[in-house]
Specification:
Residues 96-165 form the Translation initiation factor 5A C-terminal domain. This protein has helices at 2-11, 132-143; strands at residues 19-23, 32-35, 38-49, 67-75, 81-87, 91-95, 98-107, 112-116, 122-127, 146-155, 158-169. By secondary structure, it is mainly β. The longest helix is centred in the C-terminal third of the chain and has 12 residues, at 132-143. 17% of the residues are buried.
């Protein structure tokens, strides 16, 4: 029994507390999964029954393949494509993904943004988005004096601006 506990321990990493287990066969397209330690959104999902045709009388339990899940997913922060194949009855790590909207107050010269939280405080630890199109929208909208709300996605200790809304022009 203690060997199994140690095996589980070695699989855990710094982001493990920011995830929860979910059976692989229940994860679907547009859901989230952790692949190679990265939080990802599932873009393609195949549930293959890879069980080979064998005669029941001569096969032994575990002698043939089990149903597998093939996940193709995109890292939610860097956009890289990742794949994984997991037995459908096994558990996968699923990240806790949160999305929060903040009003954009300022953009510093070093690329950090100042955001207004719901409680009235400022959040000053986020950089401008790396996506060129989104970066242009944020910078252009801010320079034009528009009231902008940015949507920030967070998972496994990382945060990133992933969307922007124009809520009008400042008075």
């Amino acid at each position: 029994m203690s060997d199994e506990e140690h095996h589980f321990e070695s699989k855990a990493d710094a982001g493990a507390s920011k995830t929860y287990p979910q059976q692989a066969g229940t994860i679907r397209k547009n859901g989230y999964i952790v692949i190679k330690g990265r939080p990802c959104k599932v873009v393609e999902f195949n549930h293959d029954n890879l069980e080979q045709v064998v005669e029941v009388s001569t096969s032994k339990t575990g002698k043939h393949g089990h149903a597998k899940c093939h996940f193709v997913a995109i890292d939610i922060f860097n956009g890289k494509k990742l794949e994984d194949i997991v037995p459908s009855s096994h558990n996968c790590d699923v990240p806790h993904v949160n999305r929060t909207d903040y009003q954009l107050i300022d953009i510093s010269e070093d690329g950090f943004v100042s955001l207004l939280t719901e409680s009235g405080n400022t959040k000053d630890d986020l950089r401008l988005p790396t996506d060129e199109n989104l970066l242009k929208q944020v910078k252009d909208g801010f320079q034009e004096g528009k009231d902008l709300v940015v949507s920030v996605m967070s998972a496994m200790g990382e945060e990133q601006i992933n969307a922007i809304k124009d809520i009008g022009t400042k008075n």
